[in-house]
């Protein structure tokens, strides 16, 4: 009897224990997916639009993103990866600077718009922090535009504003070349000459204008001097859309600890890049190497400045375990394995970017009464064979406005005409 009673109690206890482990203990995979269902994953940089140009010359009609192979990004991978919002890069190479950079950038903006129209069930074009939540509620990927490289605006505030009108919400100040108003990261490696010691006066006026219109300022790709000057000037928080931690991998594309701390003071965000070369400073990397960057940034400046900036389809080497956009949940799981709390993971997933974006929108709204910046870049800073100088005073005009010049030109023409007439008669 006793034996039977004991075994009965034992069976009940065992049953309880089993029941608990089935219903109570969430696996790390389940926990990662739950967090990603509660908070949108927002990625700062993806170059699928560049793949559209490179592989298809932007003929989207020839592409089906539901089955496209050979890229890091397609619709099934996006779904599997729970990618809730993406800043798609409107990127054109530095070789276009002083040539057709503006046209090519417009075409990249256009291809992103067309991608959203072609797949309305999967993508929602988005231009605000609220749009990101609306898309998330509808289980669509909020699709935002970031222009990667100041060469894309050809030193023109009017072009910057027009691109904002077209839906662009961040501008990376440089790609891997100097612009007439900002130095890029290659200056810090010594392979590009330092031209502005950071930003030129026009570059500084551009920062003010970006604050005024509500364009996020992206410091990926710029020199450290530019990072610090923008952190001095900007009244809104800044982003690094795809950069990792310099202390973990000493590559000049990464962010030094001193800047991480300043980003924290400004309540900005550093969205971690997965490119092997920036993750381990070598050709190979794995998911745990990427998590090391997350851990380091958290240790130095807290989880409130961290985000995801995979750089998918813009790089040739990605880590083992993060082969394409379907793998984000594995990285979230790795952070949980390392003891990240739910709230820290949610911050990194999307809450940090949403906070930054909202603040940028608030700063914009607070500057509504400011006049648009309209002082053009000085002509001698942008002289090149493909740029005309309409609007700038011509050298002989220095004495006064154009009208004052007209009478003498008129007199000269009359004299010439008289001479011609005299001859013909
Ligand atoms: C999204 O859905 C949640 C819960 O249903 C709701 O509280 C929130 O207002 C919605 N947000 C937007 C922007 O639609
Ligand atoms: C990742 O690579 C490092 C070496 O960089 C190695 O120590 C570690 O075990 C690897 N981790 C995984 C999960 O493969
Ligand atoms: Zn880049």
TrEMBL record:
The keyword Repeat does not apply. Keywords: Cell membrane, Dipeptidase, Disulfide bond, Glycoprotein, GPI-anchor, Hydrolase, Lipid metabolism, Lipoprotein, Membrane, Metal-binding, Metalloprotease, Protease, Signal, Zinc. Homodimer; disulfide-linked. One of its GO terms (molecular function) is metal ion binding. Belongs to the metallo-dependent hydrolases superfamily. Peptidase M19 family. It comes from Alosa alosa. It catalyses: leukotriene D4 + H2O = leukotriene E4 + glycine; an L-aminoacyl-L-amino acid + H2O = 2 an L-alpha-amino acid; a beta-lactam + H2O = a substituted beta-amino acid; glycyldehydrophenylalanine + H2O = 2,3-didehydrophenylalanine + glycine. Its EC number is 3.4.13.19. It is a lipid-anchor; GPI-anchor. The lineage of its organism: Eukaryota, Metazoa, Chordata, Craniata, Vertebrata. Independently of its dipeptidase activity, acts as an adhesion receptor for neutrophil recruitment from bloodstream into inflamed lungs and liver. Residues 1-25 form the signal peptide. The keyword Glycoprotein applies. One of its GO terms (cellular component) is apical plasma membrane. It comes from the Eukaryota. One of its GO terms (biological process) is proteolysis. Its cofactor is Zn(2+). This is Dipeptidase. It is an enzyme of class 3 (hydrolase). It is found in: Apical cell membrane; Membrane. PROSITE patterns: RENAL_DIPEPTIDASE_1, RENAL_DIPEPTIDASE_2.
């Amino acid at each position: 009897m006793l034996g039977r009673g004991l075994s009965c109690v034992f069976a009940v206890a065992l049953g309880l224990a089993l029941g608990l482990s089935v219903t109570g203990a969430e696996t790390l995979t389940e926990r990662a997916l739950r967090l990603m269902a509660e908070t949108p994953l927002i990625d700062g940089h993806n170059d699928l639009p560049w793949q559209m140009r490179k592989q298809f010359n932007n003929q989207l009609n020839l592409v089906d993103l539901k089955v496209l192979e050979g890229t890091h990004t397609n619709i099934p991978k996006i779904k599997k990866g729970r990618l809730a919002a993406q800043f798609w890069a409107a990127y054109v190479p530095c070789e276009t600077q002083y040539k057709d950079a503006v046209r090519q950038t417009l075409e990249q903006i256009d291809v992103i718009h067309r991608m959203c129209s072609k797949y309305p069930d999967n993508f929602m074009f988005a231009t605000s922090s609220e749009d990101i939540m609306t898309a998330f509620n509808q289980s669509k990927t909020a699709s935002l535009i970031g222009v990667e490289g100041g060469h894309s605006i050809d030193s023109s505030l009017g072009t910057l504003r027009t691109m904002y009108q077209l839906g662009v919400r961040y501008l990376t100040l440089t790609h891997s070349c100097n612009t007439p108003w900002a130095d890029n990261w290659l200056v810090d490696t010594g392979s590009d000459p330092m031209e502005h010691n950071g930003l030129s006066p026009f570059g500084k006026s551009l920062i003010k204008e970006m604050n005024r219109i509500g364009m996020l300022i992206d410091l990926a790709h710029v020199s450290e001097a530019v990072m610090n000057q923008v952190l001095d000037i900007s009244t809104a928080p800044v982003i690094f859309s795809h950069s990792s931690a310099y202390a973990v991998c000493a590559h000049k594309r990464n962010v030094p600890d001193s800047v991480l701390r300043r980003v924290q003071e400004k309540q900005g965000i550093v969205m971690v890049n997965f490119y092997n070369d920036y993750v381990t400073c070598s050709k190979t990397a794995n998911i745990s190497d990427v998590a090391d960057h997350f851990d380091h940034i958290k240790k130095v400046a807290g989880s409130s400045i961290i985000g995801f900036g995979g750089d998918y389809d813009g790089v040739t080497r990605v880590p083992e375990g993060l082969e394409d956009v379907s793998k984000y949940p594995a990285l979230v799981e790795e952070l949980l394995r390392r003891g990240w709390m739910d709230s820290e993971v949610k911050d990194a997933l999307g809450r940090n970017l949403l906070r930054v974006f909202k603040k940028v929108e608030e700063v914009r709204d607070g500057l509504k009464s400011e006049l648009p910046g309209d002082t053009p870049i000085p002509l001698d800073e942008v002289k090149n064979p493909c740029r005309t100088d309409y609007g700038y005073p011509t050298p002989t005009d220095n004495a006064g406005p154009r009208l004052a010049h007209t009478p003498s030109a008129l007199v000269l023409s009359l004299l010439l005409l008289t001479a011609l007439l005299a001859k013909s008669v």
